[in-house]
Amino acid sequence: MRIFKTPVVYCNFIFILVSGHVTSDYDAPQEITFYHDIENGEEEAWILRDKVKFHSINTGSVDIPQQQQLLEEIVNKAKESNAGLYRLKSVVKTSKKKEYVFYSFMKMDTLIKAGFLTSTIVHLDQSGSVICVKLYPKKINRSPSVNRNNSTVTFKGSEQGPVPDLTSYVLKLEHERAAKEKLAGQDNRSFLSKYWMYIVPLVIFVILSGSNGDPGASNQQQSR
């Protein structure tokens, strides 16, 4: 097993599996180098694919022309292992000369259907640091063919979610509490009106108990 000296984050083309912490490089030039592995062997064989320089506060897309030699190499390997994986390693080098490694992958048959064009999404956190790199097929064709168009690298910054409205929530709780207290204070019914459902069964029970009497005493009076 190969041991990396840099923090590693694994991402597939749909889900983030593990996320890592990277040092902030806000508004500093960074460089990301892409390597790919199409051998699908036990030993990793990373080949240089592209290199992009960017500023962490700038978001948008960068088109990277496909190299004909690189395309032919991918096509030949894809035909040999159609059921394998196309793996991408992204090495981010910050302005502080620190490196962070991210892995992505997709199925080889998906890459073939996409005409060997990929869309790479680089996600940045609020501090401008890379937190994940995802790999997608750029488009799906019915018949596999080699396209000489551009692959795309897109940089996306984090978006702030909705802030909870605590003031409205507290006011709502206060209104509910006041309404409950108001209803409790308006109950001015008499004692009988409130508890008649308990009093009536008790009265019936007392009447029935008194009407039965003592059978032994009744027999003695009749014998006299």
Automatic annotation (TrEMBL):
Keywords, alphabetical: Endoplasmic reticulum, Membrane, Signal, Transmembrane, Transmembrane helix
Signal peptide: 1-20
Membrane topology label: Single-pass type I membrane protein
Cellular compartments per GO CC: endoplasmic reticulum membrane
Top-level taxon of the source organism: Eukaryota
A Pfam cross-reference name: ECM10
Residues forming coiled coils: none
Compartments (UniProt record): Endoplasmic reticulum membrane
Family membership noted in the UniProt record: Belongs to the EMC10 family.
The protein's name in its UniProt record: ER membrane protein complex subunit 10
Lineage: Eukaryota, Metazoa, Ecdysozoa, Arthropoda, Hexapoda
